């Protein structure tokens, strides 16, 4: 299939492009590079030795998106493009609602116009709010505490309604847990701008000495060691989950958790990182971070049953590959 991958230059999108190309699909990337660099497209080509078509466009621009559909024989869409910083979404909600929701509608409209019925959407476990883990796809969604989460819940509803009204439309809604790690080549990975908000990039930057000390947010959660528990998933497993979702699309809207089904605490992750890489990570325990929940992990059985997909890489592989990318990425930057 010829797949339009929006946000394909970004963290999860770039790994998914590699997985798609390796599975024999071809890829057209549409990305406005607001949170990524053009070089990641070159790296996708380096890794796979395959061709990639790239458009630097904003996918909220209906005309530009229509031009892509018109000239590229698109068979399906994987829609990653979006803004994802929870804290920022509270500060600039309109930008988040506009970017994340309008992009979904523009793409759905182009699909209708050009007869494309295969759609895969990047959602997030954040839509479960503070339901009790493990999270199951059939749970009622609780309001999230931030505009980012609301954009995901609304996009899910829009796509589900389209599938209800149009019996030809197939959409897979993928709720990701906590993607971490990098491609084993060390060429692509997560490179956030500025000081990272998320745990793994913070850990790798402390290990590297770029940041001083990790702050572990909270030690009094009702978890095995008091720190927060998350379902960390290797980004390459997540990427392979998209190929499985695409290959198993069914008419209608279908929701899948993409996680390992296993919770790991923040302190366990730090220990695994130290063991996997033989390097110490300095940390201190501080107050809880506002808005965090104690435990977030998937019931991942539906994806296994219906897509034949399970995550294969363990927490040590996640830590090893994240560290390899961090070292390599900094080296590349220093060389320039
Ligand atoms: P990312 O920021 O690395 O990638 C997103 C890409 O989309 C970037 O390359 C950015 O330049 C592009 N983009 C944003 N708005 C665009 C627009 N209007 N037009 C064209 N391109 C645009 O983020 P990621 O971690 O790869 O996340 C991909 C998707 O997965 C996002 O929708 C995100 O909300 C979702 N998600 C991510 C996580 C996570 O932990 N990383 C968790 C759950 C869901
Ligand atoms: C957050 C978002 C989620 C988003 C995901 C990936 C919230 C409530 N959720 O998930 O919507 O999909 O990021 O972008 O914001 N931690 C530390 N020290 C740090 C950083 C994190 O102890 O410096 C802890 C957190 O308290 C948490 C765990 O590590 O317990 C994971 O945090 P993080 O990586 O930010 O992801 P989430 O909060 O799970």
Describe the structure.
The protein folds into 2 domains: 206 residues, Rossmann fold (3-Layer(aba) Sandwich); 85 residues, UDP-galactose 4-epimerase, domain 1 (Alpha-Beta Complex). Helices cover 43% and strands 17% of the residues. It has 11 helices and 14 strands. Strands 3-2-1-4-5-6-11 form a 7-stranded parallel β-sheet, sandwiched between helices. A 3-stranded mixed β-sheet has the order 12-9-14. The two termini are 37 Å apart.
CA distance, first residue to last residue: 37 Å
CATH topology category name of the largest domain: Rossmann fold
Could you state the oligomeric state of the chains shown? Answer: single chain
Strand order of the largest sheet: 3-2-1-4-5-6-11
Listed once per kind, the bound small molecules are: nicotinamide-adenine-dinucleotide, uridine-diphosphate-N-acetylglucosamine
- Highest-level CATH class of the largest domain: Alpha Beta
Number of self-contained structural domains: 2
Structural class: alpha/beta
Specify the helix fraction band: 40-55%
Radius of gyration: 19 Å
Please describe the biggest sheet, giving its number of strands, its sense, and whether it closes into a barrel: 7 strands, parallel
Keywords:
Rossmann fold; UDP-galactose 4-epimerase, domain 1; 2 domains; 3-stranded mixed beta sheet; 17% strand; binds nicotinamide-adenine-dinucleotide; binds uridine-diphosphate-N-acetylglucosamine
